[in-house]
Amino acid sequence: MTTMADLNLQEIHNTLISVAHEAGRMILSANPSDISTGTKLNSADIVTETDKAVEALVSSRLSKAYPSFAFIGEETYKPGMQVTTAPTFIVDPIDGTTNFVHGFPSACISLGFAVDRRPAVGVVYNPYLDQLYTAIRGKGAYLTHGAVWGLEGGKGYKYKLPLAKNPQPLLGLNTSLVAIEWGSSRDGVNYEVKTDVFKKLCASKESGGAMVHSLRSMGSAALNLCAVAAGQLDSYWEGGCWAWDVCAGWAILTEAGGIMAGGNPGVWEPKIDERKYLAVRGAPSGQEGIVEEFWKVVGEGRMEYES
Question: From the candidates 27, 46, 94, 136, which is the catalytic residue?
Fold first, then answer.
């Protein structure tokens, strides 16, 4: 069995960055208005030729570099596939496909590497903004901006995450900026739970709500997680996404001092394929309190997704 000590995580990280930049060029060269789109679930669950082409590129590059490692990708996933304890690349070729199709510049390639079902390396790259988020377990998380654009002699501007040198304590939901996503399933129990929570988060204290500062939807789980890691968002509540949506961002979040709890109340240590998550930014105090306050908003509601 391969252990963490047997792996060169720095080399894996560097390989993933190279692959992310190559995939980014492919994404930028595609003209969404010319691409034929299909749907996986319904009209809001879009898959494109580019998703498949990018995943083929990523799979080819990684299987050549690391032939013994497992690979799980969104476009090649088959029901029943499980993330095992073996070293596994977990990738989403385009996270934010809906944004991509509409030409909205909030989409990325999400390249995660997990060992023993725990994120170990994360690389998330938004080619539209040339923003590269990276992390290696135990070595911190970083944002590099503008390297491909040639800024700073091609090195870009590199920032340690979180961006604030002295992050503020988390005081409560009423001072929080919270990320959520509508998802592609727009009916049933999960949709009812989600929309009920959205309403409670925004409602005034007088009407029994949490009165958060506001809600944000970046349209990409990976970019939501990176924004929480950066400290630009205070938390991100999600249900329905998959391991490939969160693996890379999770590595970045935890290396930036953030925590990942379950989206349903009571789950402090969610599995990588839990499909229900609550990410909270790094802070000197208040992380557990925010989680517990959020769970009270969820109340008796429970999201249920098959993994």
Answer: 94
Look up tokens 């299909």; give the residue: 38
Residue 240, by phi and psi: left (phi above 0), alpha (psi -120 to 50) or beta? left
Is residue 206 among the annotated active site residues?
no
DSSP-assigned states of every residue in 36-85: -EEESSSTTSEEEHHHHHHHHHHHHHHHHH-TTSEEEEGGG--TT----S
Instruction: Give the active site residue among 51, 55, 75, 92.
Output: 92
Rounded Cα distance between 77 and 20, Å, is: 20
Residue 92 designated active-site = yes
Q: Which residue has the tokens 């002295």?
A: 166
- What is the mean pLDDT of each successive set of 10 residues along the chain, which is 307 residues long? 80 98 94 67 65 92 96 88 94 93 94 98 98 98 98 97 97 98 92 97 96 98 98 98 97 98 98 97 98 98 91
Q: What is the pLDDT of residue 31?
A: 72
Structure tokens at 123: 């690389």
pLDDT value of residue 75: 83
Q: Cβ(248)–Cβ(272) under 8 Å?
A: no
Cα 76–chain centre separation: 19
What are the residue ranges of helices labelled H in the chain? 9-29, 49-65, 97-102, 188-202, 221-230, 243-255, 287-298
Output the pLDDT for position 3.
64
Is 94 annotated as catalytic? Answer: yes
The dihedral through the CA atoms of 287, 199, 306, 46 has a sign that is: negative
